Amino acid sequence: MTVISVIVGSTRDGRFSEKPAHWILQHLKKRDGVDGRLLDLRDYPMPFFDQPVSPATPGRQPYENEVVQRWTAAIAQSDGFVFVTPEYNYGPSAVLKNAIDWVYPEWNRKAAGFVSYGSAMGARSVQQLRQTLIELQIAPIRSSVHIPVATLWAHYKGGDVDAGLAELEKPAEMLIDDLLWWTAALKAARASAS
């Protein structure tokens, strides 16, 4: 089985992110051989990264924080990722960036895709995340799902979010196709290197 984790990148009250996260997760679960999992950052309330050494430091001791240990284990069990990210002030949320920063080797040599929303449909958030993920040795795929502002506003006004998401079926399928191809290639490469 290939484990793809969908990461809910917002913890705000009244957040929108869980709707597209569950939507893309359902698409993943329709694929043969895929174990789609939801990693909601509300379930991993980590402190801001404050350790004396980077997670990339060779030979460092495991971090003692129990939530960080659970988060790191969930990332280690995953073969690929879909980041569901808002755009806050031209970039991703602080809680998502912090969760990314707590981990290093467990991210390495895996693939990631993006579902985004917010100003410019979240494209600038995805652009920044791509640069961060490359530093973590994650392969960000080209295909993404950018949710139109009208669908986001439907959430806040009690409108039909599902109808807006349904219009994004084709980009969602492209994202999953590409993500699974890269995930399989990288999983095989990791296996042959060990």
Automatic annotation (TrEMBL):
NADPH-dependent FMN reductase-like domain segment(s): 4-148
Pfam families in the record: FMN_red
Superkingdom assignment: Bacteria
GO cellular component, one term: cytosol
GO MF terms held by the record: FMN binding; oxidoreductase activity
Alphabetical keyword list: Plasmid
Transcription regulation is among the record's keywords: no
Database matches in Gene3D superfamilies: 3.40.50.360
Lineage start: Bacteria, Pseudomonadati, Pseudomonadota, Alphaproteobacteria, Hyphomicrobiales
Keyword Protein biosynthesis among record annotations: no
Protein name per the record: Nadph-dependent fmn reductase
